[in-house]
Design goal:
heterodimer; A: alpha/beta; 4-stranded antiparallel sheet; 38% helix; B: mainly alpha; 11 helices; globular
Chain lengths: 293, 234
C-alpha cells in the first residue's frame, strides 16, 4: 500500500481562487517525496489537504490508506506536521516548546523529559534549552519548530519548507534527520525552494505550477525530461572564459573522446552535471515568460 | 498550556493584566471616594475580570492560527478541537483569576457578603465569561485580517465592558440612555450582581429577565461559535 494516493484532486477557495487542478500521484512508503513549485503554485494547499487541515473541493486523497475526508482522525494519529512559517512563542524556551508538545501528545512526565532531551540533542538545541526563543537566531527558532514534529515517531511527516532560514550546517542537520527517519520507515513529504535539497533528498518529485501537475518522477527523470545533460568543460589552466569550450556529449563514447582530446591538448577537463535548477526552470519557465511578456 | 506559560513566567505581565479590569475602579475611588460607588465599581471588576479574559481568547485563537501556526500543528495530531478550546479557555481563566481574587478581597473587606449572593455573583461572571469565550473563538478562527483580529476584541471590550454601567450605577446615565444600555448583556450581569450584594433594588421581573437574558445570550453565542468557528479550513 502506498503512503499517499491522490486522484484528480482540486481545490477552489471560497472566494473563487483555484489553487489546485486535477492533481494525481502516488507516494511509496518510506520514501522522501518532494513538492516543488513557485510561490503560490499550490504546494502548501496540497500539503494542507493531505495533512487534514484543509478540505479539498474535488477528487480523492488517501493517506496511509485512509480517506482524508472520511477518516481524518486515523490519519492524524499517524502523522506530524511542520507548517510553513510557523513561529515559536517568544517568551518560552526551546525546552518548554518540546517538553509541552510531548505532554500535549499524551506522554508521561518522565517519558516526555527523556524524549525532549533526545529531540533537542538530535537538533543540536540542548545547549540553548534555557534561553527564550526571542533571544535565538532565526535558524535555531526554525529548529525548535521542526522539533515539535519530531516528538512522536510518525509514519508520515509533512515538512513545509523546514530548512528555510537555516545556515548550510543547520540544513544538513535537518537532512540527516530526514534520512534517518526514512531508514526507520517514515515517509517524508517535503516542500522546498532549495533545488539542492530536493536533489539530495528526493526519491520522487512533483512539480506543480499554477495548481497543475507539470512533472512527476525521479530527480534524474526530471533532468532528462527537461533536456539538461552533463556538460564537459575544456579550458587551458589560467585561460579566460573566452577560451573555454562547453560540450554536451550525446553518448558515453563521445564523452570519452572529448576527455581524451582535452587531456592530449593539455587542457583541464571539468564536468558540470545536469542541475535540478535548470530542470525546474524548464518546467515552470513558461509561466515566467507569460508574466514578463 | 503554551498560552498561559508566558504569563506565569512573567509576573509583571500578570500584574498588568490584573490592573486592566481595575483601572475604572481606581478612577472611581479617586474621583468619587471610597463609598457606595467604589463598591459598585469593585462588583463591576469581579463581573468583568473573567469577561475580559474571554474576549482575549479571540486574539489567542487568531494568532495561534495565522501567526504561530500552532493550530495547524494541533489539527494534524491527536489533539481534539474540544481539548484545544478547553486549554485556551483555562488559560484565560488562570490569567484572570488574580484580578478576580483581589476584587473579591476588597469587596469582602468593604461590605458584608452572604455566601449565596457571592455564589450568584460568581455564576453571573462565569456566564459572561463562557459567552465571550464562544464569541472569541468564533472571531479568532474566522477573521482573516490581522487588523480586524486586533481591533474587534478591543472594540468589544470597550462597548461591552467599559462603556455600559458595570463599574458605575445605571442611574448615573441620562434616562433616555438607560434602556439602550439594558440591551447589553454586561449591564444585566452587573445589575444582577449589584442587586444580590444589596447595592441596588430592582423588581422581581427584572431579576428574572436578567437571568433569562444572560442565558439566552450565552446560548446565542454558542450557536454563533458552532457556526463560525473553524478547526479544519473550508
Amino acid at each position: 500500500m502506498d503512503a499517499i494516493e491522490v486522484e484528480g484532486l482540486g481545490k477552489t477557495y471560497p472566494k473563487g481562487t483555484e489553487a489546485l487542478k486535477d492533481v494525481s500521484f502516488k507516494v511509496a512508503r518510506g520514501s522522501v517525496f518532494c513538492l516543488l513549485g513557485r510561490n503560490g503554485a499550490g504546494k502548501t494547499t496540497l500539503l494542507r489537504i493531505l495533512a487534514t487541515q484543509l478540505r479539498s473541493t474535488v477528487g480523492k486523497a488517501r493517506v496511509l490508506g485512509f480517506d482524508v475526508v472520511k477518516e481524518p482522525d486515523k490519519i492524524r494519529e499517524r502523522i506530524s506536521v511542520v507548517p510553513q512559517e510557523a513561529r515559536p512563542f517568544m517568551m518560552l524556551s526551546p525546552y518548554d516548546h518540546i517538553y509541552y508538545m510531548c505532554k500535549i501528545r499524551g506522554m508521561e512526565t518522565e517519558d516526555a523529559k527523556k524524549r525532549t532531551k533526545e529531540v533537542m540533542d538530535e537538533l543540536e538545541l540542548w545547549e540553548h534549552r534555557k534561553k527564550l526563543t526571542a533571544d535565538l537566531s532565526g535558524g535555531l527558532r526554525q529548529r525548535v519548530i521542526v522539533g515539535l514534529a519530531l516528538v512522536t515517531t510518525p509514519e508520515l511527516i509533512f515538512l513545509d519548507e523546514p530548512s528555510i532560514g537555516l545556515d548550510p550546517l543547520g540544513r544538513r542537520v535537518i537532512w540527516n534527520i530526514i534520512r534517518k527517519m526514512t531508514k526507520q520507515g517514515t515517509t517524508v513529504l517535503l516542500t522546498t525552494h532549495y533545488m539542492d535539497e530536493a536533489d539530495a533528498l528526493a526519491d520522487k518529485l512533483l512539480i506543480i505550477d499554477k495548481g497543475r501537475k507539470v512533472f512527476f518522477g525521479t530527480v534524474e527523470e526530471a533532468k532528462h525530461a527537461a533536456g539538461t545533460e552533463t556538460k564537459v568543460l575544456l579550458e587551458r589552466p589560467g585561460s579566460t572564459t573566452h577560451d573555454r569550450e562547453v560540450l554536451v556529449p550525446k553518448s558515453d563514447q563521445e564523452m570519452m573522446e572529448i576527455i581524451q582530446r582535452g587531456l592530449k591538448e593539455g587542457k583541464r577537463v571539468t564536468f558540470k552535471p545536469p542541475s535540478l535548477d535548470e530542470a525546474f526552470i524548464h518546467f515552470v519557465g513558461g509561466s515566467i515568460e507569460e508574466e514578463t511578456a | 498550556m503554551l498560552d498561559i506559560l508566558p504569563l506565569l513566567r512573567d509576573p509583571m505581565m500578570m500584574i498588568l493584566l490584573t490592573m486592566f479590569s481595575f483601572m475604572p475602579v481606581l478612577f472611581i475611588v479617586v474621583f468619587a471616594g471610597a463609598g457606595g460607588m467604589a463598591t459598585q465599581a469593585l462588583i463591576g471588576a469581579v463581573v468583568l475580570s473573567l469577561f475580559f479574559g474571554g474576549i482575549q481568547v479571540a486574539n489567542s485563537t487568531y494568532f495561534n492560527k495565522h501567526w504561530f501556526r500552532f493550530q495547524d500543528i494541533y489539527v494534524a495530531s491527536t489533539i481534539s478541537p474540544i481539548s484545544y478550546v478547553i486549554g485556551l479557555s483555562l488559560a484565560t481563566l488562570i490569567g484572570s483569576l488574580p484580578g478576580v481574587i483581589i476584587a473579591i478581597g476588597f469587596l469582602v473587606v468593604s461590605i458584608p457578603i452572604n455566601p449565596i449572593s457571592f455564589v450568584l455573583m460568581i455564576v453571573i461572571s462565569l456566564i459572561l465569561w463562557v459567552a465571550t469565550l464562544f464569541l472569541g473563538f468564533a472571531i479568532g478562527s474566522s477573521v482573516k485580517d490581522t487588523r480586524r483580529a486586533n481591533s474587534i476584541p478591543q472594540i468589544l471590550g470597550f462597548f461591552l465592558g467599559f462603556l455600559p454601567p458595570v463599574y458605575y450605577p445605571l442611574d448615573k446615565l441620562p434616562s433616555f440612555l438607560q434602556p439602550v444600555m439594558m440591551l447589553l448583556p454586561t449591564t444585566h450581569g452587573a445589575q444582577l450582581a449589584k442587586y444580590y450584594l444589596g447595592m441596588i433594588t430592582i423588581p422581581d421581573w427584572q431579576v428574572l429577565f436578567g437571568w433569562v437574558y444572560l442565558v439566552v445570550f450565552m446560548l446565542l453565542m454558542a450557536l454563533f461559535s458552532i457556526k463560525w468557528s473553524k478547526w479544519v479550513d473550508p
